[in-house]
Amino acid sequence: MLTRLSPDVRQYLLITGNYWAFTLTDGALRMLVVLHFHELGYSPLQVALLFLFYEIFGVITNLVGGWLGARIGLNRTMNIGLGMQVAALSMLLVPAAWLTVPLVMSAQALSGIAKDLNKMSAKSSIKLLVPGDQQGTLFRWVAALTGSKNALKGLGFFLGGAMLTAVGFAPAVAIMAGALLLVWLLSLALLKRDLGKAKAKPKFRDIFSKSRAINLLSAARLFLFGARDVWFVVALPVFLATSLGWDFWQVGGFLAAWIIGYGIVQSVAPYFTGRRSSRTPDGRAAFLWAVVLTAVPAAMAVLLARGHDAQTVLVVGLMVFGVLFAINSSLHSYLIVSYATEDGVSLDVGFYYMANALGRLLGTVLSGWVFQVAGIGACLAISATFVGVAAVISLALPRHKIAHATAEIR
Q1: Distant-in-sequence, close-in-space partners of 250: CB < 8 Å, separation ≥ 6
Q2: How does DSSP classify residue 395?
Q3: Which residue has the higher pLDDT, 270 or 58?
Q4: Cβ atoms of residues 218 and 209 within 8 Å
Q5: Max alpha carbon distance in the chain (Å)?
Q6: 398 touches 283 (CB < 8 A)
Q7: Is omega for the bond preceding 210 within 30 degrees of 0, making it cis?
Q8: Using N-to-C axis directions, what is the helix angle for 283-305 and 310-339, rounded to 10°?
């Protein structure tokens, strides 16, 4: 069936398939590490710090990876990322006594580099397959890619919790390493074309965006994802396991269902943000949707402070938060691809996802520290504040017409 498609589309589908396979292992590994090391007696802050290098190197990789992709091509950066993830998983296949904090943090650092090389490659390639005057098509393609990726990440969360319960930490990691090794070998054989290589070799200083629109959107993205991870990454799964007494498979299954639902909403986000009126979203849409999202963690924090049932507040609140956050995230993902220049697109996308990774880093560290010091209610209050900041920044984003935004870039 692939032979009937154009070469460009075949390349994109292969890159997307690699991205999906990687995402599945990435979600499973995160859940395995959170639950396994919490079971070993690590505090919430210590668990959060295990991901410190993952997020730090994600920031660096997005900043440098866009430049690298523009120089050597997105297929090569994709394959480098897959190989590094296999290596990161292999590092954890050691006797339990050897699983020290430095080793786990090093493996997570390698995984963070691998993940963002893959994300940058997949998100950048779509810009090259859609004509610049077809912004509605671009929005739908970006939404479908982002949503499907997060649905698979959610499935990875469930697999991580289920495999930890069924076979244990080391066998679960071994299964994932073997499966991804096969995907990597197939990728090396099938991905041939240097998709995304810039016509002119970009200089290293070009990693920093010169576009006001991209800089503003990147700042808003930083606070948006910090708002999610400040309570979702460590505080929520630990709270569910300890305060509410949920089993590991229940925690993994619930978070997996949330991520899958979140991904589905991302995929259909164009229907909520202007598709019916044949309009593509702009900066005003980003501001309005962020304002609506701000109310959810704020309301949850107030309800918990007033003594309402924590399980009800978190389960219902998380579902509402997931729908609204998915729309915000999908809208942002479209705007960055729309704003980015076609020649060397990975430079702009890489810079933007550097800010995304910086927001995750900030949220992850705060998730462990604030939860340990002040509880999940404080995490939710910070989340509301962060979304509010993202909304204020979005006020300065360009309004219609998006298609003309690229004229001001570089």
Answers
A1: 161, 240
A2: T
A3: 58
A4: yes
A5: 61
A6: yes
A7: no
A8: 160
Residue ranges with strand state E in 87-221? none
The number of helix segments (H) and strand segments (E) in the chain equals 14, 0
Give the global pTM: 0.70
Distance of CA 291 to the CA centre of its chain: 21
pLDDT at 167 over 50: yes
Is residue 158 predicted with pLDDT exceeding 70?
yes
Nearest alpha carbon to residue 326 among 249, 383, 270: 270
Q: Scanning the structure block, which residue is given the tokens 């993952």?
A: 54
**SS3 assignment, position 204:** helix
Contact between 322 and 293 under an 8 Å Cβ cutoff? The reply is no
Secondary-structure class of domain 2-408 per CATH:
mainly alpha
Closest CA to 71 of 406, 346, 349, 355: 346
